[in-house]
Design brief:
single chain, 7 helices, mainly alpha, Four Helix Bundle (Hemerythrin (Met), subunit A), two-stranded antiparallel ribbon, about 0% strand
Length: about 220
Protein backbone atom coordinates (compact mmCIF):
# COMPACT_ATOMS: atom_id res chain seq x y z
CA UNK A 1 0.00 0.00 0.00
CA UNK A 2 1.08 3.57 -0.62
CA UNK A 3 -0.08 4.56 2.85
CA UNK A 4 -2.69 4.09 5.48
CA UNK A 5 -6.26 4.70 4.56
CA UNK A 6 -7.07 2.88 1.36
CA UNK A 7 -10.74 2.78 0.40
CA UNK A 8 -13.54 5.04 -0.71
CA UNK A 9 -13.99 6.80 2.62
CA UNK A 10 -11.30 8.47 4.70
CA UNK A 11 -10.64 6.36 7.83
CA UNK A 12 -11.12 8.55 10.89
CA UNK A 13 -10.97 7.32 14.48
CA UNK A 14 -13.07 10.31 15.56
CA UNK A 15 -15.98 8.98 13.49
CA UNK A 16 -16.44 6.20 16.06
CA UNK A 17 -16.40 8.43 19.14
CA UNK A 18 -19.56 9.01 21.14
CA UNK A 19 -19.41 12.78 20.87
CA UNK A 20 -19.13 12.66 17.07
CA UNK A 21 -21.94 10.15 16.71
CA UNK A 22 -24.14 12.12 19.07
CA UNK A 23 -23.50 15.39 17.27
CA UNK A 24 -24.12 13.73 13.89
CA UNK A 25 -27.46 12.38 15.16
CA UNK A 26 -28.46 15.85 16.29
CA UNK A 27 -27.53 17.33 12.92
CA UNK A 28 -29.44 14.55 11.16
CA UNK A 29 -32.58 15.30 13.15
CA UNK A 30 -32.40 18.95 12.19
CA UNK A 31 -33.11 20.36 8.74
CA UNK A 32 -29.36 20.68 8.07
CA UNK A 33 -28.13 18.88 4.95
CA UNK A 34 -24.67 17.39 4.37
CA UNK A 35 -24.14 19.86 1.55
CA UNK A 36 -24.80 22.79 3.88
CA UNK A 37 -22.26 21.42 6.34
CA UNK A 38 -19.73 21.06 3.51
CA UNK A 39 -20.41 24.64 2.46
CA UNK A 40 -19.93 25.78 6.05
CA UNK A 41 -16.42 24.33 5.92
CA UNK A 42 -15.53 26.96 3.31
CA UNK A 43 -16.66 29.67 5.72
CA UNK A 44 -14.55 28.15 8.51
CA UNK A 45 -11.54 27.98 6.19
CA UNK A 46 -12.04 31.59 5.08
CA UNK A 47 -12.14 32.66 8.73
CA UNK A 48 -9.02 30.60 9.45
CA UNK A 49 -7.14 32.05 6.48
CA UNK A 50 -8.30 35.55 7.33
CA UNK A 51 -7.19 35.11 10.94
CA UNK A 52 -3.76 33.91 9.85
CA UNK A 53 -3.45 36.92 7.54
CA UNK A 54 -4.61 39.38 10.20
CA UNK A 55 -2.18 37.88 12.71
CA UNK A 56 0.60 39.20 10.51
CA UNK A 57 -0.82 42.70 10.55
CA UNK A 58 -0.91 43.14 14.31
CA UNK A 59 1.39 42.61 17.26
CA UNK A 60 1.35 41.42 20.84
CA UNK A 61 -1.96 40.36 22.33
CA UNK A 62 -3.98 41.13 19.19
CA UNK A 63 -1.74 38.96 17.07
CA UNK A 64 -1.96 36.16 19.61
CA UNK A 65 -5.76 36.41 19.55
CA UNK A 66 -5.89 36.02 15.77
CA UNK A 67 -3.59 32.98 15.98
CA UNK A 68 -5.87 31.34 18.53
CA UNK A 69 -8.86 32.06 16.29
CA UNK A 70 -7.00 30.60 13.31
CA UNK A 71 -6.38 27.37 15.22
CA UNK A 72 -10.03 27.22 16.28
CA UNK A 73 -11.34 27.73 12.74
CA UNK A 74 -8.95 25.09 11.35
CA UNK A 75 -10.47 22.59 13.76
CA UNK A 76 -14.01 23.72 12.94
CA UNK A 77 -13.21 23.12 9.29
CA UNK A 78 -12.26 19.54 10.17
CA UNK A 79 -15.40 19.17 12.26
CA UNK A 80 -17.50 20.16 9.23
CA UNK A 81 -15.56 17.64 7.14
CA UNK A 82 -16.34 14.95 9.69
CA UNK A 83 -20.02 15.71 10.11
CA UNK A 84 -20.99 16.14 6.46
CA UNK A 85 -20.00 12.55 5.70
CA UNK A 86 -21.61 11.16 8.84
CA UNK A 87 -24.90 12.95 8.20
CA UNK A 88 -24.84 11.85 4.56
CA UNK A 89 -23.91 8.19 5.15
CA UNK A 90 -24.98 7.24 8.67
CA UNK A 91 -27.85 9.73 8.62
CA UNK A 92 -29.01 8.72 5.15
CA UNK A 93 -29.31 12.31 3.93
CA UNK A 94 -26.94 12.13 0.96
CA UNK A 95 -27.93 14.03 -2.18
CA UNK A 96 -27.23 13.51 -5.88
CA UNK A 97 -24.78 16.44 -5.91
CA UNK A 98 -23.16 15.29 -2.68
CA UNK A 99 -19.90 14.11 -4.31
CA UNK A 100 -19.26 17.63 -5.60
CA UNK A 101 -19.83 19.27 -2.23
CA UNK A 102 -17.80 16.58 -0.53
CA UNK A 103 -14.69 17.47 -2.55
CA UNK A 104 -14.89 21.03 -3.90
CA UNK A 105 -15.06 22.86 -0.53
CA UNK A 106 -11.97 21.01 0.67
CA UNK A 107 -9.90 22.30 -2.22
CA UNK A 108 -11.13 25.86 -1.66
CA UNK A 109 -10.42 25.49 2.06
CA UNK A 110 -6.82 24.41 1.48
CA UNK A 111 -6.20 27.41 -0.75
CA UNK A 112 -7.78 29.90 1.66
CA UNK A 113 -5.90 28.62 4.69
CA UNK A 114 -2.42 28.19 3.25
CA UNK A 115 -2.55 31.38 1.20
CA UNK A 116 -3.70 33.18 4.34
CA UNK A 117 -0.75 31.84 6.31
CA UNK A 118 1.64 32.81 3.53
CA UNK A 119 0.42 36.39 3.34
CA UNK A 120 0.38 36.60 7.13
CA UNK A 121 4.06 35.74 7.44
CA UNK A 122 5.11 37.74 4.39
CA UNK A 123 5.81 34.68 2.25
CA UNK A 124 2.86 34.46 -0.18
CA UNK A 125 4.81 32.27 -2.61
CA UNK A 126 5.34 29.64 0.07
CA UNK A 127 1.67 29.79 1.00
CA UNK A 128 0.55 29.28 -2.58
CA UNK A 129 3.05 26.43 -2.99
CA UNK A 130 1.60 24.66 0.06
CA UNK A 131 -1.91 25.22 -1.31
CA UNK A 132 -0.98 23.90 -4.75
CA UNK A 133 0.61 20.72 -3.42
CA UNK A 134 -2.33 20.19 -1.04
CA UNK A 135 -4.74 20.36 -3.97
CA UNK A 136 -2.45 18.05 -5.96
CA UNK A 137 -2.68 15.32 -3.30
CA UNK A 138 -6.46 15.31 -3.70
CA UNK A 139 -6.20 15.39 -7.49
CA UNK A 140 -4.10 12.23 -7.53
CA UNK A 141 -6.52 10.51 -5.14
CA UNK A 142 -9.50 11.39 -7.33
CA UNK A 143 -7.58 10.39 -10.46
CA UNK A 144 -7.15 6.99 -8.86
CA UNK A 145 -10.88 6.70 -8.29
CA UNK A 146 -11.61 7.82 -11.85
CA UNK A 147 -9.45 4.98 -13.15
CA UNK A 148 -11.24 2.38 -11.06
CA UNK A 149 -8.83 2.21 -8.13
CA UNK A 150 -9.60 2.68 -4.43
CA UNK A 151 -9.05 6.11 -2.95
CA UNK A 152 -5.59 6.57 -1.48
CA UNK A 153 -5.76 8.63 1.71
CA UNK A 154 -2.15 7.91 2.68
CA UNK A 155 0.26 10.54 3.98
CA UNK A 156 2.64 11.78 5.11
CA UNK A 157 0.66 15.00 4.69
CA UNK A 158 -3.00 14.13 4.07
CA UNK A 159 -5.73 16.62 4.99
CA UNK A 160 -5.91 15.80 8.69
CA UNK A 161 -2.12 15.96 8.97
CA UNK A 162 -2.06 19.38 7.28
CA UNK A 163 -4.67 20.80 9.62
CA UNK A 164 -3.01 19.28 12.68
CA UNK A 165 0.30 20.86 11.64
CA UNK A 166 -1.19 24.32 11.14
CA UNK A 167 -3.29 24.14 14.32
CA UNK A 168 -0.26 23.20 16.40
CA UNK A 169 1.84 25.85 14.69
CA UNK A 170 -0.77 28.54 15.35
CA UNK A 171 -0.94 27.70 19.05
CA UNK A 172 2.84 27.46 19.42
CA UNK A 173 3.14 30.78 17.60
CA UNK A 174 1.15 32.43 20.38
CA UNK A 175 4.08 31.71 22.70
CA UNK A 176 6.54 32.86 20.04
CA UNK A 177 4.66 36.11 19.52
CA UNK A 178 4.57 36.93 23.21
CA UNK A 179 8.22 35.90 23.60
CA UNK A 180 9.95 37.35 20.54
CA UNK A 181 7.32 38.60 18.09
CA UNK A 182 8.67 36.38 15.31
CA UNK A 183 6.94 34.08 12.83
CA UNK A 184 9.48 31.28 12.50
CA UNK A 185 7.11 28.58 13.71
CA UNK A 186 4.49 29.31 11.05
CA UNK A 187 7.19 29.58 8.39
CA UNK A 188 8.64 26.19 9.32
CA UNK A 189 5.14 24.67 9.51
CA UNK A 190 4.29 25.97 6.05
CA UNK A 191 7.49 24.46 4.66
CA UNK A 192 6.62 21.15 6.33
CA UNK A 193 3.16 21.20 4.75
CA UNK A 194 4.46 22.19 1.30
CA UNK A 195 7.21 19.57 1.19
CA UNK A 196 5.08 16.93 2.91
CA UNK A 197 2.17 17.45 0.52
CA UNK A 198 4.54 17.24 -2.46
CA UNK A 199 5.90 13.94 -1.13
CA UNK A 200 2.35 12.72 -0.52
CA UNK A 201 1.32 13.54 -4.08
CA UNK A 202 4.42 11.76 -5.40
CA UNK A 203 3.84 8.65 -3.29
CA UNK A 204 0.20 8.45 -4.32
CA UNK A 205 1.18 8.94 -7.97
CA UNK A 206 3.78 6.18 -7.92
CA UNK A 207 1.37 3.79 -6.25
CA UNK A 208 -1.35 4.62 -8.76
CA UNK A 209 1.04 3.99 -11.64
CA UNK A 210 1.87 0.59 -10.14
CA UNK A 211 -1.83 -0.27 -9.85
CA UNK A 212 -2.52 0.78 -13.44
CA UNK A 213 0.41 -1.26 -14.76
CA UNK A 214 -0.73 -4.28 -12.77
CA UNK A 215 -4.17 -4.03 -14.36
CA UNK A 216 -2.69 -3.72 -17.83
Amino acid sequence: MAGEGMGDRRPLASRNTRWAQGLARQMTNLSVTPNQISQASIVMAALAGGSFWLSGQGSGGLRALFLILAALFCQLRLLCNLLDGMVAVEGGKGAADGPFWNEFPDRVADILIFAGVGYGIGAPGLGWAAAAFAVLTAYVRELGRATGNPSDFGGPMAKQHRMATMTAAALLSVVEVLWSGGSWILTIALWIVAVGAAVTALRRSLYLIERLKAKG
